[in-house]
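Quick one: Efflux transporter periplasmic adaptor subunit from Urechidicola croceus, structure tokens please.
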Amino acid sequence: MKKYTYIITVITLSILMTSCGNDEKKVVADNTPPIVVKVNAVQEDGNNPFVTASGKVQAENSADLSTRMMGYVNKTHVNVGDKVRKGQLLISINNSDLQAKRAQVNASITEATAAYNNAEKDYIRFKNLFADNSASQKEVDDMTAHFEMAKARLEAANQMKNEINSQFKYTNITAPFSGVITSKNIEAGDMANPGMPLISVEAPGKYEVMAMVPESEISQIKKGTEVDVVVKSINQTIKGKVTEVSTSAKNTGGQFLVKVALDKTDAKILSGMFTTVQFPVAKKATASTMVLIPTSAIVERGQLTGVYTVSQSNTAVLRWLRLGRTFGDNVEVLSGLSADESYIVSAEGKLFNGAKISIQ
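--- reply ---
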């Protein structure tokens, strides 16, 4: 009986100690000072003067080089970032099999040439004999056919040599124009396969932007329109002109491709930079009011984007959003935030879901 009493006493003490510990943690948590934050009210914009579209910078003159031949790479003669001139050798692919075929073709040409010369002599000889009534028409016809066949075999051998010579061009990859090497996807000893991009080159200095315009706005975009292109990474705006407007979105997911040629500029732009193209055309009257928030307030967690909002009990609440187009330093919120809410733009500490906050 005493044994059981002892066990119950120990359990009771353990429960009391645990409760006290929890109460102590709770007191510590309750005494944590709130994080001072700044908040903004949701901004609505229904009168934005621009039709905008996201795009990416690319060089006007660029090429991804590949080969039609399969073979091992003997040597890569350049590296990424190297400047090259037109016709410069970039990659050498092993061509020993082509050399063997060329030797065979050369031997065939030698044989066909000898047969052709002999057939030509016989043809001329029998024509003269026929003129002197010393050969029959049948003999002349046979010599003529023999001569024509020898001539055809020689021509076929020469054309086969041309084919082999053209294949040699695909074992020596050269620069199609002067420019800079932007990527290299193969090294010496690797196997080059037909159609596989081996090396990329582009001519710097002239750039363009490929923008995706939604179907609701594409009818307003015209060729020759002057536009502003905002390059986000360098925070600069560059002038440009629309050079191409696609009339089909069959293979682009409902978005229409628009090509914009950028004016010459001293800005440090590079291929692959993301941009926002602002087309100076009025939005349609049916366009809905946009909800805009600054991009600096956006929180990213993997592929999810959100923003911290304020709850009724003054705690931070992470709200996931679906974002749309970018307008300078602001981004459009398609869903997840309404016009009667506030969001946190900065904090004097690390925010997390449920953190106590104090609005400055």
